[in-house]
Amino acid sequence: MSCLSVRRRSLRSGAGAWRSFAPLTAVLMGLAAPTAALAADTQAPKLVSASASPAWVNVTSGPAAVTVTFRVTDDDSGAALPVVSGDSDLSKETTPTGTVTRVSGTPQDGVYKAKLTVAKGAVGGGWTASALKLEDAAGNATPGAVTLARFTVFSFGFDTFAPKLVSSSIEPASVDVTSAPATVLVTLHITDDYTGTRVPTVDVTLPDGSETRSVGDGRFLSGDVLDGMWAVPIIVPMNVASGAWTLTLRPLRDAAGNSGKPIALGKVTVKSAAPVTPQTPATPATPKPAAGTGPAPAAGAAAPTVDAGQGGVLGARATSTSRLSFAGTSKRLTISRKGTLAIALKCTGINRCKGSLRLYSKVRGKKVKIVSKRVSVAAGKTVKVRFTLTRKGRTVLTRGRSLKATASVWTDGIKAPKTRALSTKRLK
Prior knowledge:
The protein is mainly beta. Helix content is 6%, strand content 46%. The strands form 7 sheets. The protein has a 6-stranded mixed beta sheet with strand order 12-19-18-14-15-20, with no helix packed on it. A 5-stranded mixed beta sheet has the order 22-28-27-24-25, covered by helices on one side.
């Protein structure tokens, strides 16, 4: 009916009358509205966003908790609290059902948190947090489980497989460094089943095979340590040997210590102003070492691996590897009144030199280290390395019976140091 007519007695005349009462009509129609709305609700709730924190958990020595945060919306009646759990990608292992609470918003648009517990020693690798279903107050539900977020489980005792190289690329395949350095980019796609791969490292072998050296560690691009892309930029300087340089991926290792085998990645053709060094034939007989030079290397011994440090720079031959040494010929070590001294070092070669400088003396016949310092010198440069001695060091070098000292400079990747005997000057 369009309106309701209600009979009521007039307060003034006392006579009965039929009068239209619109407000009561509105109230009664309003009470019927929710029933109509519920009948019209036919859409299941929808997942808007979700994430897991932390993204990595280690259950080697104990259980670990993962919090899944997600937002759900519903058109009308409002979403109910879902049932959430975590499942391993590699086995049928699952977490217990998590405790779910709405932390903000309303049933129509709310943010929820589910706390999951991964048991000690659980299967390592990728795990998926999912809701059994999303359902609202009207009974509308998703047809199946809804994936919320992914997280990774570390479990060292379970991991027995080394990482795998899925694919690799070298760009460009050839470079010309006659007039300027060039950069070669090695891209690697690496996967690991459980604990995740360590940072990969690429080695380069000279055209004549005389030397193999590291050109630096990989840089993470995308994905994760279970399935990720890595890049190794290699700077090819001028005046290196021309020819085909061989790139090799060192054995891949994961967090559990599993290791694979070296993998040949390919070759880079380098054109340089330096001539191609011919292959030196192997000598059948082992030569006798010269006096004071130590034993000769065994025939067929592996070439040394030289660390090029930061930057991934291809170096020159082993005979011209960059090296730290003392600058000048002075053997006098002057110590200031404040206990400071300086020793000049130079870097010979085409790459930056990195190493350490150490100063020793003898006290009652025993060798005592006075000071040690890490140094880094640009190729072809000379720098003064300054020290500030401790009180003990000043006593040994300036007030002891013997005022002699020995300085040793070590270059990273080269076993034999350069040494120099020095005499110190007393403080007045």
